[in-house]
What does this fold into?
Amino acid sequence: MATIKDVAKLAKVSPSTASRAMHDNPAISEKTKARVRKAMQTLHYAPDFNAQSLANKRSNAIGVILPVDHHEIFTNPFFLKVLRGISEACYHAQAMVNLATGSSQAELLHSIDIMVTQGMIRRFIVLYSEQNDPILLKLRQLDAQYVMIGKPYQLVNETPYVDNDNILAGSDAAQFLVDHGHKNICFVYNDLKKMVQNDRMLGYQRVMMENGLLINSFELPAQEYPGGRQLVIQYLTQHPEITAFETVDDMLGLRIQQVLRSAKMVTDRQVSIIGFNNSVYSEAAHPALTSVEVFPRRLGNEAAKIAVSLQMSENLSTKLIVPHQIIERHSVATV
Amino acid sequence: MATIKDVAKLAKVSPSTASRAMHDNPAISEKTKARVRKAMQTLHYAPDFNAQSLANKRSNAIGVILPVDHHEIFTNPFFLKVLRGISEACYHAQAMVNLATGSSQAELLHSIDIMVTQGMIRRFIVLYSEQNDPILLKLRQLDAQYVMIGKPYQLVNETPYVDNDNILAGSDAAQFLVDHGHKNICFVYNDLKKMVQNDRMLGYQRVMMENGLLINSFELPAQEYPGGRQLVIQYLTQHPEITAFETVDDMLGLRIQQVLRSAKMVTDRQVSIIGFNNSVYSEAAHPALTSVEVFPRRLGNEAAKIAVSLQMSENLSTKLIVPHQIIERHSVATV
DNA sequence: CAATATTTTGCAACCGATTGCACTAGGACT
DNA sequence: AGTCCTAGTGCAATCGGTTGCAAAATATTG
It folds into this structure.
């Protein structure tokens, strides 16, 4: 591998000049810059990231923070798609992608500590937004920069983020049901501490109110929680008027479908469902789930683009809204 | 952050001695080692990864190579679970996790090139095994080490890998069907260039032959391929004798379920299905899919443990087989 | 044309580790 | 006591970059 010294020698300049030329330092004349560039070309020069990071006290890598390992999360293809988008953008920006996960919050915090203090990673992408998240606090304490996927709870103006308009998405989904003649619609969520879920619910509520309809909501606990099934059955029998569900994730919709079928309610009751995230599996469901596509890959891609362009002491924060789209399938019937 | 010089000063030794003490160099007396260790403690010393990588010409990071971006892959929670396992092991080994993806093979190759030549990453985990994979060739050319998840096609003895016993898993699944009285069983795959699929099919074939049954197989193309549905219908009508499917991934099973239902064949024909990978979604299917759990997180974890312990010029290769387990649900009926 | 201003460049230190080799101290041996 | 080992340690170079500051080269001005 050619080093900067080789380039310097070939271009007949000193390494310092070469370095400055490479970074387009205005102190270097256009003539020498050209010479240096040519030398780089012929030697196939590529900088050593570790040397750079050492000298700069700042790595070229982007840290990616996944939410603390809940079974549910590590099973949701959403994150993998986001990762793919991040990876793509980083590839084009010549940045490395560094993963941070943890099975507990303490572990994750520690991971991040190491990445920053020992790895000199200074830019992160946080793949979720949660209320009072200690991870963000840590990041700030360590003087690291981050962009979020999802709207932040705190420092909304100072934090760069990319998100869907989840309120609008929540509305659109609800409106879709209303347009199909549904009047008694229930919103199903999982954890309202998550901004996504909260926003979608807000959107749902708005549409219901606008149409003078009653608001119903139901918390369906995560997969592994045992009594979940029972809860659904109970809810259904106590609310015979409900004809449609808006579920914050396809997975929840799928589970409701399943309960409906197994409890033999499917025969005597027709229930429509609309979900979010458009997982492959919703296509295979029966009936195939109508779902709101949120373009996770795009979310990741844009977040990474922002992250790599983050300057050392940036103060203006970029916000970007990625559109969503209802994918109509067969789980919503007209009443 | 404390540097090695600070530690050296406090321990009243030179940086070189401190460094050697930290690496348990036998040239250093136990007495000084103890002094150095105490100094490390009191200063909360932690080495700078970039400085280390620079001096060693070898990064502490593990590169993780995902398969080239086929829609199908980036949707399969399997990989996310594997990643989780890798991340966990790396956390305990104080190693960073570096992701490599690409939307084309060229892109992925380039990514890897950069990681090795500019990032000094020398240890990789390859999350799949494919016939004649140029990625592996590249890795070897670059003189990088890798451990595979899945059995390698080439250099089987020289390559460390962790895998399920997919032949056995394939047999077990087939035997499970046979035990339930099925005689006309069809194996459904996707891409036989993938070792997993090939192995599972081999296992299936063995059981069929042992039981004097006919071998049937069927290639169901990836999700996005349009005519897929038609193909299934065609196959089903041409083979009225088939009573059970063994599908190489739950997703394929789900798709077959769906066709069966939508084509109204469900009424006049009862078909059993057993899949692999035990995705969450198979639980939500109707009927819930019986599936072979392969413990992806464990696969990743073990692979990472091997990777971090890889020496600079290791020659013995570790192989590790992770067990599998049939998760019985409701998609297999007794005939 | 000398004096000064301005642009370009290079020297040398530094980032935080690792390591070959030379040096020192102490003990064993003649 | 002098010589030779051996074990333990430190010096200084190195990895491949970046950057403050001074020096050199060139341009501008009176």
Summary: The longest helix of chain B spans residues 77-92. The two ends of chain B are 69 Å apart (CA to CA). The mean pLDDT of chain B is 92. Residues 3-5, 15-16, 19-20, 23, 47-48, 50-56 of chain B lie near DNA strand C (CB under 10 Å from a C1').
